[in-house]
Fold this sequence. Notes:
Blueprint: E1 8-18, E2 21-27, E3 41-44, E4 47-53, E5 58-63, H1 65-70, E6 81-86, E7 105-115, E8 118-124, E9 138-141, E10 144-152, E11 155-160, H2 162-167, E12 178-183, H3 185-194, H4 210-215
Antiparallel strand pairs: 1-2, 1-6, 2-5, 3-4, 3-6, 4-5, 7-8, 7-12, 8-11, 9-10, 9-12, 10-11
Amino acid sequence: MFTGIIQAVGKVAAMQPSGGDLRLRIHTGKLALDDLVLGDSVCTNGVCLTVIELPGDGYWADVSVETLNFTTLGKLQVGARVNLEKALTPASRLGGHIVSGHVDGVGEVVSLQPDGRSVRVEIRAPDALAKYIAHKGSICVDGTSLTVNAVSGALFELNIIPQTMAETVFGEYGPGTQVNLEVDVIARYLERLVLGDAAARSAPATGLSMATLADNGFLRGTAPPSGTGNKV
């Protein structure tokens, strides 16, 4: 688990295709490696990767086909800068929000506009993720924990302060830049919970509906039918 507070910006040092997936080497820059061991996790541009080698100036990690298909890691070039965060410990400050490092989809930067000393960034999320993005809710963009300032359909806006621009890869974004998105994990679990017994069926055809909510007692003045519904 991570917090979405970027600890350092690293660089892609090597990319080696291997059996259909990818082996990735990251130079970690100022990120301290003294407490990192093989098998530890490092959030790399929002993707949780497992350390398989520690050459001294960074780490090697394997990137699976699944990760290549659903994130931007496979589109990186040698020399590209990436946001880095080590996994949190029980003593860590939760300065951002709970981040799993499991990317939900790839978004695209639509525009960047000055807003005082900050920058207003508009991003288009995949349509399937729009329902999880809420005004003043949390979202993780390339591993960075951010607050949603405005949302309209699949478009949402962020306010990026100078510190974040300087200490992350946000300073390199432009219209068309693709970014890894992870929605708030609480929203994902809440959706599953509200499905009630329908979640056990292999492929709910309609997902959430007023009928589903009523059947599981989530609408005021209703109760789940006897012997059915969501029991907690």
